[in-house]
Every structure is written in C-alpha cells, then in structure tokens.
C-alpha cells in the first residue's frame, strides 16, 4: 500500500483525522438536504472529509451514532438533535477529549456547546402578528415536541404576539404532532370539526402547511378569506401550492455553511468556539397569497 | 488516547476502514436526498461509516473527490456521475487496488464497474406512449446532457414511442438544458412562441415540469386540454402542483438501499459484484391530471 498516500496513518501521528462528523434527525427533508449541501461545500473546500449519519429522530440512535463518530476520531461534530432527545450525555466524551461539538437548528442550551440557530421566537412572533394584522382572531398553531427549542420558542412567539394583540391564548388551538404530512391531514380534519372554525393556521413547517391547505381546499374552505395559512422553512413547495404559502425564509444552505465554517475556523485556531458560543442567523417572513387578505 | 477505541488504527492493521464513500452530483435535490437517506440507513445498520461528497456537476471536482476518497482508504465507493463527466479514468486507481466502485442512476457503461439503474428507455417510452394515447401529436421533450445514460436512454424511449405511433420525430421539439427551474421557465417561454403550439411536454425531471406548468398557466394555457405535461421522478411537488403531475415513480430511497446493500454484501464476500454486474430497479408511470384527457 506504500504507493497510496496513507492519510489516516499520518493522521494518527498528527492526532487529527481531518474528518468532520454530522448527526442529523433525517437526511431527506428539503431543509436538511440544503444544510448538508452547505456543510459539504465548506468542508470539502477546506480539505476535510464529511462523515454523516441520521438519528432517525431517536435519542438511542443518536447516541449510537455519536459512539461511532468518536471511534472514527472525528476532529469535530455538527449535531441537530433528534425529536425525543432528553439528555446530551452521549456527547460528553467529546468534550472530555476536547473535540468540539456544535449544535445547529435543534440545539441544547449548555455552556460547553456552541450553537447556531435562528431567532425562532422572533420569527414565530412575526408570523402570528402578521396573521392577527390580517384580521385573524382564532389561530390554530400546529407544532412539534416542546423538548426541542425550535418548537418551544415558536410557541412562545405565537403566545407573545397574541398577548400584544390582546387575544386570549386558547390551549385547545395548539396541536402537537410529529410534523409529517400524514399528521397534518389528521390535524386539519380535526380543525374542520371545530365550532366555531378557526380563521388562521400557523404550522411550524411547510410540509404541514401544504397538507393543511390541500385538505381545507377539498372541504371547500376559501384561503385566505375563511382561513389564512402560514408555514415555516420556505420549502420549494411553498411556491407550488395554490395559493402560494406565506412562510419564514429559513436558509438551510447558509446555516450549513456557517456551522461548518465556525467549526473549521476553530480547528484551525482561528476562532475560539467558547468565546463565540452562539451564532444567530437571520430569517425573514415572506408574505404570500395564503394569508394576504388586504 | 488509550481509552478510546482506536478503530482507524486497527483498521490499518486489518487493511480495511469500514468506510463507504459516496460521490453524487448534488446533495440537495429531492431524489438525491432520498438516495442518501437510503444508503445511510443500510451503511449504518451494517456498522460501516459513510463519507459523502458532491461533485457539483463537474468532472474536475468529481476527480478531486475521488482522490480524497482513495486517501481516506474507503472500502468501497458509490458514484452517480457529474453532468459533464467524459471519462472515468479517475476511478481506475480503485480498480487497481481492488476497491469496488459501483455506479448508480447516472452510470458509465464499463465491464469493470457494477451498476444500478432503472430502465430509462422503457420508462420514457411509457410516458411518451401515454401522451400519444391521450391524443398528443406534437410532444416537446425537455432533457439533459446526452453524455449521461439517463437522458440519452429517455430520448431513445421518446423516439421509439413516436415511431410506434407513426409520428415523425422532429428535432426542433427536443430542448436540452441543465434541468433547473430557471431553464425550464426559459424553455417554456420558447415553447409558447412555437407555431403551431405543441400539445404535449415531457420533461426528464419534475422540477422542470412544475415550472413548465406554472408558466403555461400564467399564459392562460389549459392543462391537459391544450398541452398535456408529464415529468419524471415523482418528487413531493408532483402532488402539490395543480393539476397534479403525471410522472415516473423513481424510488430514490430504495435505490440507495439497494446500492449500499450490493456493495456491503460484496465486501462481506456474500456477493460477487462482477457476476451481478447490473441491477435494474423497477419504476412505474403514475398518471395524474396534468395529462389525463380521457
């Protein structure tokens, strides 16, 4: 094997592997595939290699993936947490060995782990405020597991906007599910049985919002006149569904680039991760026909 | 470092790394993210690790990715070729070292490389035959670089179906572009200037078909009555666009699983890759409203 550059062997001597590990809930969502593409570009341009794995939304798989990453001697790890992760003990062996672990999107508040996210509270506040300004009074909020910062913060933003508009919070209008298209169909069928009907729906992903709109239209509901709908992420489908979907432009590719750059700069001693700690990326409300009444 | 299982060091002794490499054109397409998710699941379940990279559609980057994979001592490589790859010399070092390289989807006919694909000729024949059966006589075909088997085979299928229906092939009706949404908009604007207008459009991906439908609708064209439209891949957007899109159900997740299984079985000496050589997966025409006239 002498004629092939044996980079792992030399990495062992240098005590680094030039490998960045990534653990995400699922690889096949529009948002996450954009994130991974952004990460890969930066990693590859810096002559690192990228090992990826998916937790399939369970803490058990996430912990097992973390062990594999450790055994593979990754130089650093980028993580977006699984749906049901309650503890991050499985990342402690990295901290002990001074291998940086950076959380992005679905983060875990902990002083030893730097984080990259958007201001989910503000984004959800803006969506809800927009719906209220369009005249909505009874807004259903479809969201995910409140263990995850992204969904807890968005619920907080929803509540705060209601408060600012002097609209009482009604727990009956909050639906928590796994955010799949299938569960959105079931949620919308439940919404159609509500009396009185709500006049707005704010879902925390576009997959759910698109399914909602499809079910509402089949039931003869006029969007946005009877029910205004807003989503989150700005998936390509947001501009395909009719009416086009109001949503939050959450730039996955840019988040991937930022996360990989932050980690690689740290590994190259150009950046102190603890000092930076948190990087909050910009997101923006995009108003389209699904909620524009005026 | 003694207390951490040093798998790369022991891999060096065992002369394998338990790493599978993947090189794809782009990670952020709906089809490719499904493929990667399928590959990751099988690779992870078999205690291999997955290194991924994207060629960003250029042979130059693909060759550089291949060198990195070789230096990383991957046990095997899964490749879907870039848009402009004209030679696969950059994979020869793997063959010399008896490291299996398996092509999937965008393959290269070569006896030393096993391949996984769908019958693109048959799938395109069925789409075109369907459009002709619905009464279309002038069908525009929007396709990609004919260097790639997937697009060359689909053009062959299109031509063969025309022939079977005694419709003359008209080169003016074949548009070759990079298959982006942007190019599909430009292509559709050119189509709208054709005199007479075509009565059918068959695109080799759904991204293009969705853009075509959007532009045609804005121009007041009735789909499928005036122009019937069919795509390829069965992206989620196919069931969001109105009218819903006729397309070919191309199962990316299953292709990823099959490619990873084939490679891992070979590495475990359970399968002779040269003997299997080609695996042709099933695909199926799904007829929806965008082309259903009868």
UniProtKB/TrEMBL annotation, chains A, B:
- Please name the GO terms that the record assigns under molecular function: DNA-binding transcription factor activity; transcription cis-regulatory region binding
**Matching Pfam families:** Peripla_BP_3
Keyword ATP-binding in annotation? no
Q: Which organism is it from?
A: Mucilaginibacter gossypiicola
Q: What is this protein called?
A: Transcriptional regulator, LacI family
Instruction: List the keywords (alphabetical).
Output: DNA-binding, Transcription, Transcription regulation
Q: Which residues form the Transcriptional regulator LacI/GalR-like sensor domain?
A: 128-291
InterPro entries linked to this entry? LacI/GalR-like_sensor (IPR046335), Peripla_BP_I (IPR028082)
């Amino acid at each position: 094997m002498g004629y092939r550059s044996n980079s792992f062997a030399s990495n062992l001597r240098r005590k680094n592997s030039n490998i960045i590990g990534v653990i995400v809930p699922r690889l096949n969502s529009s948002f996450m595939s954009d994130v991974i593409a952004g990460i890969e570009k930066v990693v590859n341009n810096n002559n690192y290699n990228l090992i990826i794995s998916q937790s399939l939304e369970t803490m058990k798989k996430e912990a097992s993936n973390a062990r594999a990453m450790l055994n593979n001697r990754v130089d650093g790890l980028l993580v977006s947490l699984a749906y049901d992760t309650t503890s991050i003990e499985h990342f402690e062996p990295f901290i002990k060995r001074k291998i940086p672990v950076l959380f992005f999107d679905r983060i875990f508040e902990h002083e030893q782990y730097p984080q990259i996210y958007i201001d989910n509270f503000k984004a959800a506040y803006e969506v809800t405020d927009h719906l209220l300004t369009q005249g909505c009074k009874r807004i259903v909020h479809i969201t995910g597991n409140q263990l995850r910062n992204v969904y807890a913060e968005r619920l907080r933003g929803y509540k705060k906007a209601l408060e600012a508009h002097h609209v009482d919070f009604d727990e009956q209008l909050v639906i928590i599910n796994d955010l799949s298209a299938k569960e959105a169909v079931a949620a919308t069928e439940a919404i159609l049985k509500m009396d009185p009907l709500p006049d707005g729906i704010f879902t925390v992903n576009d997959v759910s919002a698109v399914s909602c709109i499809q079910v509402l239209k089949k039931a003869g509901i006029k969007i946005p006149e009877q029910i205004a709908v807003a989503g989150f992420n700005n998936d390509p489908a947001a501009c395909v569904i009719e009416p086009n979907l109001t949503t939050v432009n959450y730039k996955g590719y840019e988040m991937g680039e930022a996360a990989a750059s932050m980690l690689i700069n740290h590994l190259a001693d150009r950046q102190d991760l603890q000092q930076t700690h948190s990087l909050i990326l910009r997101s923006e409300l995009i108003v389209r026909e699904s909620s524009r009444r005026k």
